[in-house]
Amino acid sequence: MAIDSVYTELITEHSRDKRNRRRVEGATCSHRGVNPSCGDELTLELRVENGIIEDAAFTGAGCAISQASASMMSDLLRGKSVEEAGRLCEKFIGMIKGSVTDEAELEELDEAAALRGVSKMPARVKCAVLPWHTYLAAIET
Amino acid sequence: MKNIAVKNIADNFPALRQTVNGHTLVYLDSAATSMRPESVLRAVDNFYRRDGANPHRGMYDMAQRATDAYDGARVTAARFVGADAEETVFVRNASEGLNLIALCYAPLVLGRGDNIVLPITEHHSNLVPWQILARRHGAELRYMYVDPRTGVLPDSELDAKIDGRTKIVAFTHVSNVLGTRLPVEKFVAAAKAVGAITVLDCAQSVPHFGVDLHKLGVDFAAFSGHKMYAPMGIGVMYGRRELLEAMPPFLYGGDMIEDVREQDTDFLPPPSKFEAGTQNAGGAVGLAAAVEYITSVGWEAIEGNERKLMKKLTEGLSSLKNVSLVGNSGADVGRYGVASFNVAGVHPHDAATILNDYGVAVRAGKHCAHPLLARLDAEFGACCRASLGIYSTEADVDRLLETLPLVRRRMNLGD
Q1: pTM
Q2: Distance CA B97, CA B227 (A)
Q3: Among B104, B202, B368, B384, which one carries the catalytic annotation?
Q4: What pLDDT digit, counting tens, does each position of B90-115 carry?
Q5: pLDDT level of residue B300 (50, 70, 90 thresholds)
Q6: Domain ranges of chain A
Q7: What is the pLDDT of residues B145-171, one digit of tens each?
């Protein structure tokens, strides 16, 4: 069943992990993302230096899927260039929406690939993609 | 139909006979929308199969049958809530009714420095229109606050908030989050004392107990059909006759006019004045059939079953380890069909997703009542809500109570 592949130890642990749930010191960019229908909300903070994401973290409240997704994204984006991070966000959103399914292609999403089961849970898609959409909106502004 | 046994009611609702993720559906979200009995589905179907002409417009038999069905539905709906047909306007839902009142009546009385008073319990549909109107007219929007632990509204809040500048007091009959019944009689008395008008959102009360609008003495009221076993897209806005007469129309168009000349128009008297264009006649027929269904089961049976289930539900939830009721600690007050709760450490959306895996449907989130949730002591600022309908059974409540202990385990949190 789809939900067994989502509420795994890896994901539930990430959802409660405090490492990435904090303010970013010297943040150069901050953006708030909200799912109005369910009340998930998070503020993503980034410190970008010379086009490289030196640090990424978030604050806010939401379900395990949105929180784990934000935590995994913070890990993934740290150390990447802004453009590379944008490309990974598009790929993650593609995975959740079911348009990117190739295992080898998903490998570069690292732990975040563990959320692919959400693509089979239409009611929760918006929870998983919220942090990634927030990143894309943040770099646009 | 008089002797329908309460335990067989669910058999009248085809949507309840389905399997979800390998389990028989347990539908505990009737406060969001209720399912519809065969008799309602059949009434709507028959209307479109036999009588589906445009009411109030044709000279032929079929149009006359459609007119009779639509006008008859209004009489039935009016009688259901102790109102006259002339005061009963068909709208899409409670939200539209409340918007109509806010947009067409409020501007006649609201000025700079006046105030609108609401309890904090309000659903967004009886809150956002007042917020917008208050801002537009330079009026103040004041809230009467419930005790966040018990969900009860102290009388002192009425005294503190309603004053000589109060023009409108709007309130729900039953809170869609707390299940508590708001003190309508006290609101009406306090509003009358200062010459303010009263607006009742009875969307959450009409499915649960008999409501008599004339007896309550409110000036306006609104409810939806879809929470009382009727189709979606039909509801009622009630207004006292002289108020409806004083108000301008809401929308303009066909069937609401007496005469139109090139430069001006005479409108029909209420309720037609507020029903522009072809109406949801099939929905109105469905609403009347829902009233007949409720009447055939009878309030005594409906309320008796619900009281028994609410006791089992609230006692069961409070006895479960790591489950806590929200806005319902200790106060021994009536709760009407709604119990809100949280599973410790689990966001309500995750809890609801896991319950769904066992076929149990509950609502999770902020329940279109963000300002209320911000005041309640709810983990994650949100909660799960189990709500009952005419068809709910002890077995439904048992299934929820048996399944809840699995939620934390599925989230790898132990028991």
Answers
A1: 0.93
A2: 15
A3: B368
A4: 999 999 999 999 999 999 999 999 99
A5: very high
A6: 2-140
A7: 999 888 899 999 999 999 999 999 999
pLDDT tens digits, one per residue of B186-220: 999 999 999 999 999 999 999 999 999 999 999 99
CA distances from B114 to B133, B189, B198, B244, B248 (A): 11, 19, 15, 22, 21
Q: What is the ipTM of this complex?
A: 0.90
CATH architecture under which domain A2-140 falls? Alpha-Beta Complex (3.90)
- Angle, vertex CA B234, rays to CA B233 and CA B238, nearest 5: 140
| Domains of chain B with CATH codes | 6-30+298-410 (3.90.1150.10), 42-294 (3.40.640.10)
CB contact under 8 A, B349 and A124: yes
Assess whether B202 carries a catalytic annotation: no
Please report where in the chains the tokens 């399914």 appear, as a residue: A101
**What residue type is assigned to position B136 of the chain?**
R
Helix, strand or coil, per DSSP, at residue B254: coil
* Count of CB pairs separated by less than 8 Å, A with B: 53
Cross-strand partners of A41 = A34, A61
Chain centre to alpha carbon of residue B250: 21
CB contact under 8 Å between B381 and A39, yes or no, is yes
Chain-chain contact of B412 with A12 (C-beta, under 8 angstroms): yes
CA distance B358 to chain A (A): 11
CA–CA–CA angle B266, B272, B278 (5° rounding):
105
Contact B218, B200 (CB under 8 A): yes
Q: Please list the residues that pair with B29 across neighbouring strands.
A: B387
Q: Which amino acid is at B364?
A: A
Token pair of B70 as six digits? 């639509």
